[in-house]
Design brief:
Layout: H1 2-8, E1 27-30, E2 33-36, E3 68-71, E4 75-78, E5 88-94, H2 105-123, E6 128-135, E7 144-151, H3 161-168, H4 174-189, E8 194-195
Bound molecules: zinc ion.
Zinc ion (ZN) is lined by residues 50, 57, 59-60, 97, 141-142.
Length: 197
């Protein structure tokens, strides 16, 4: 991965990613120094995708087949259609509109089992330092849990900032990415469900 970084930028300083233009990006340069943006007054909480008044839910119409890594009766594991900067980025979705907090015990146990297995599988892969498991849920009505695998040995790519580095780092080559996803999906399917990569 570091060779790809140096090939893209000899001094290791990669281009600013598009997230710096997002409304939710909290930083801006003021008088030559980085500073938090001014916080505006609160408004009305907006509906998410798939909620009454929100945008139509594309996930209910089906996940893009090329993004699906693994699936079973209740869950769909996807990755982004574009290559990621971090070695592995996966999202585990419910098929229905459900949130963490809404699950019955059986469904909650399924989430725990799949998450535990996924982390174990990915952290056993060469070059992986740790897998971060994150749930935000401000966009879609389908519960979706993120799995961000950070590379081993990079002291700067730790904790929540690993997510920022996913947008900064050069993309993983597609053949490497597909091979890694195939290995993960195949191992996860040993416990159930179907590998799709
Ligand atoms: Zn939906």
């Amino acid at each position: 991965m570091y060779a790809r970084v140096l090939a893209a930028a000899a001094d290791g300083r990669l281009p600013t990613p598009s997230m710096s233009q997002w409304d939710v990006f909290p930083w801006e340069v003021v008088d030559g120094s980085l500073a938090p943006k001014a916080l505006t007054a609160p408004g009305i909480e907006q509906p998410r995708i798939g909620e009454p008044g929100g945008a139509p839910c594309g996930a209910c119409e089906g996940f893009a087949p090329e993004s699906v890594v693994w699936e079973d009766e209740h869950w769909v594991l996807t990755t982004s259609q574009e290559p990621t900067g971090l070695p592995v980025v996966l999202i585990l979705w419910t098929r229905e509109h459900l949130d963490v907090g809404d699950f019955d015990d059986e469904h909650a146990a399924e989430l725990g089992r799949i998450a535990n297995r996924l982390v174990r599988i990915i952290e056993a892969m060469p070059g992986i330092g740790r897998v971060h498991v994150n749930r935000w849920g401000d966009g879609s009505s389908h519960s979706h849990v993120w799995f961000f695998a950070r590379p081993a040995g990079f002291a700067q790519i730790k904790g929540s900032h690993a997510v920022d580095w996913d947008d900064i780092l050069p993309p993983v080559p597609d053949d490497v990415r597909r091979a890694d996803l195939h290995a993960i999906a195949t191992k996860l399917a040993n416990w159930g469900g179907t590998a799709r990569v």
